Amino acid sequence: MVSTPGQPVADRALTALAPPVSPVITGGERDVVDRNALIADKLRQAADILTAQGADPFRITAYRRAAAAVGVLADDLGTVAERGGRKALEAVPGIGVAIAGAIAEMLATGRWAFLEHLKGTADPESLFRSVPGVGPALAHRVCDTLHIHTLEALEAAAHDGRLEQVRGFGHRRAAIVRAALAEMLARVRRGPLFASHEEPGVDLLLDVDREYREKAVAGELVKIAPKRFNPKGEAGLPLLHTVRGPWHFTALYSNTARAHQLGRMTDWVIIYFHTDNQAEGQRTVVTEIHGEAAGRRVVRGREAECRGHYATI
To answer: 297 or 101, which is more confident?
Structure first.
């Protein structure tokens, strides 16, 4: 079993049980039971943590309901996804659109970035290093330049030209990464390469960012004890759960190696979002240091929209 140093045992086990890059899924009955059980356990962990953090009760109930459904499911979720993609996962009783996306991520990578952030164990650089064509230095630059944390966000950047703006990524290497990600993610996705994922407007993201930073400074938020860069194990990372209309948000400061190196831990804010009918997404909000928006908060990857937003207020 190949594992990432410091990766929790349960995560290593799920990684080992994840289907191979080949679309052919193999494995015996034990693998089926173990994989479903590990995914159910991760969903329960998320529900328990959200409960302790005072998150929205409906969100917590959704994770518990999904965990119970997965726990008694006779069919292997990997096989379900291989045969019908995310739509097949969404069709499993107790699993909605948002949680189907989380399960797809676990099946494809053996990890769930949202849960890792809740637990303070997130390490997007090690995730990106699992992609052929992305070594340690390039993974570091991707996180530093693009502020993304998931394979699907990396795939989007490889297609919309942002990845080629990262030093070391030319057209050829970006094409290699696109092909590798298409193969890695294909086993849990059917239909168009990009499902059109709606996102909250930048006004909502910036408002959540404002609420998070104000309450963090005022000491009004629950704090978690991140596993990384926290040798004393102190609970010092503020975390916000909030709702805006149909959108559920979770916000916290970035705890990446680059944020620590640059002293930007209290500037880079990671925001997760989803609705009951919309898969989970993630954006990072930072203080712009260049151009006409210098000094203002901007959503990475949506800078033009932020400039338009500020022009109207």
So the answer is: 297
pLDDT digits (tens, 9 = 90+) for 126-177: 878 888 889 889 988 888 888 887 777 788 888 888 898 899 888 888 888 8
Q: Do 92 and 72 form a contact (C-beta atoms < 8 A)? A: no
Tokens representing 144 are: 């530093």
How does pLDDT run across 229-247, given as a tens digit for each residue?
777 778 889 999 999 999 9
What's the angle, vertex CA 142, arms to CA 198 and CA 13, rounded to 5? 80
Residue spans per domain, the chain: 9-115, 124-186, 202-311
Please name the residue that has the structure tokens 């390039």: 138
Question: Hey, do 9-115 and 124-186 end up sharing a CATH topology, with the first three levels equal?
Answer: yes
Return the SS3 of 249: strand
Provide CATH code, domain 9-115. 1.10.150.110
Of the candidates 64, 107, 101, the one whose C-alpha atom is nearest the C-alpha of residue 86 is 101
Instruction: Cite the beta strand spans of the chain per DSSP E.
Output: 222-224, 237-244, 247-253, 269-275, 278-287, 297-299
Per DSSP (E only), the strands in 11-121 are none
- Specify the pLDDT at position 122: 66
The CATH code belonging to domain 124-186 is 1.10.150.20
What is the reported pLDDT for 16? 41
- Number of residues that this document lists for the chain: 313
CB of 78 within 8 A of CB of 36?
Answer: no
